[in-house]
Amino acid sequence: MPTDRNGYALATGEAAATAFNEGMEKLLSANAGAAAAFGRAIEADPTYAPAHIALARFHQIHANRAEAKAALANAREHAGKFSGREAGLVHCLGLVLEGKADSALPAIHAHLREFPRDALALSPCCGVFGLYGFSGLAGRDRALREYLDSLAPAFGEDWWFLVQHGFALVETFDEALGKAKVDRALELFPRDANGAHIRAHARYELGETRAGLDELTLWTRDYARESLLHCHLDWHRALWTLKLGRHDEAWSLYRAGVAPGAIWGPSLNLATDAAAFLLRAELAGDARIPDEWRRVAAYCDAEFPRAGIAFLDVHALLASAMAGDAAGFAARKAGLRGPAADIVAGLGDAFDAFAKGRPGACADFLAPWLATHVRIGGSRAQRDLLEELHLAALTQAGREAEAADYAKTRRRGL
Fold this sequence. Notes:
The chain contains 22 helices and no strands. The protein is mostly helical. α9 packs parallel to α11. It starts with 13 loop residues before the first helix and ends in a 5-residue tail after the last helix.
């Protein structure tokens, strides 16, 4: 019987198994071609439920809602013929696809106690946009790290796991060790886009701006524009370029690879990265461009018309405030829900004050949330935006002593 990348048996024929494994490699490495590979697996074995659920997960990650729903239905239609790991995989990912985070996480934990090397089952837990990342809990980074620590012996030198574990280390202030794991993963599988991405995070946290930019620019030359992370990797490049003072180049990267409509990308990445770049550019001295802010605000409203994802809502409130869209701002704020709604509302007040030229009020609104902004989700690099805004607001308000004190103490640990 054929096996998957982690050594688990696949209850299907060789042709379907080969295509399924190819799809897994491309899905886990964020490279183009996963959907086509899963499609070939399904063509070879139309009743192979794991291929259907993997395709559903692909579509969920890519924000193809209708396609994800259809693939999930196909997976469940055929799931009854499977048992053990494959049945458990359909069950766990089905809960994830339905947005049932409270049920999905314990189901995945139980599944991995029996099948501790099941990468596809583990994947929704990982990263800053996963089940831990969007839990709204202040200790979510530490909790994910400890969970991945417990699975490390089972995975060994699996390149995908090394990257996920490395990211968890970076996010919990163990940057050098995290980078070492990612470097090893890229030795094993050099074209892993997740690896290139997390190495960029490690470089950012270590202050290695020029090395990180040069490395990522070289890596992305052979990365297909239609691939999952192209837009986000360009965001990293744009931020580094901005930091080096090359503003025109940074704006070119933004307009060609980050701005809504410039490139395909997951809608959550495009919305949040675009808003974050525009604010960082302004904090770096560039003039505010209302039309760019209106473009991002409209994109947030079109792709996420209802509030509910804290990390997205933070950036949507920022875009509405900076665009001067009072009605959109009020509607988004009124609809906030979830475990981090309180902090999102507070950050929204800060953005509104900054947009209206009230930096002192912005700093005061931000201050209560700076120690717990991890709750909104996203990475340390992404949430730096809040700390940089706080410093800028204090400075603009003439509160230089407070700004100096905050600059000395920020980002000292969990």
